[in-house]
Write a structure and sequence with these properties.
The protein has about 270 residues and is of the alpha/beta class. It contains 13 helices and 13 strands.
Length: about 270
Amino acid sequence: MERVVALGSSRKANGVDMADILLQDRSRDGVLLLTLNRPDKRNALNMALVLALDAALAEACDDDSVRCVVVTGDERAFSAGADIHDQHLHGAGVALSDKRLAAWRRISEFPKPTIAAVNGYALGGGSELMMMMDMAIAGRGARIGQPEINLGIFPGDGGTQRLPRLIGEKNALRMILSGELIGAEDALRMGLVGEVVDDEATVATALDLAQRIAAKSPQAARLAKATIKQGLDLTLKQGLALEHENIRPLFGTAGQQDSMAQFVSRKAED
């Protein structure tokens, strides 16, 4: 497993070596595996880890060899959420700093396909990070929730907006207002994750899916993702117009012509 190198000349964020808290593995063609690596803190998302993830994704965005990204933690926790110790010491100043919020925004806007591989706890900011990913695969033992209400606050990294869009208003209100955790099967039923597998198969399943995605046209994948994301904020009529506008540039590209020619050739042989 290789270590991630942050963009620019510095490898440090808030005095912490980014390579120590975020690991990367490029052993599968077209796939970048990012592993949150603060096991003693259950991969809590302090400022340094958020900045490391932001830097790694910025690097991946400019790297044509990366076509799909998988983000995971360890067997105990995908991420237990924001670093409460930091927030207790610094209050809203750290949670709502322009630097941190800008990093979260860039992470959420990463244009290539992303998959969360979730084992153990995905709480608070960890759950919100999972929701930022395009797809999520959970181990059977995963426990997911937004327990911020127990600390006298509510989700502040997109949970109040993404969660109801994913699982509906009433389910989101129950999770956020009660602070209760849900299991993987309930998350699947609600649509919060797309697949549940045995814990030991979570990362491998996500990587297999990532490889299948990486084998497709990267231009088509990025435009399909952008069209879906943008269309969610539009009327159906506007969304259909966007779809037609975005698909047009793909016709006539070398990759599209080759793929269609191969398809026609296979059909002719059947």
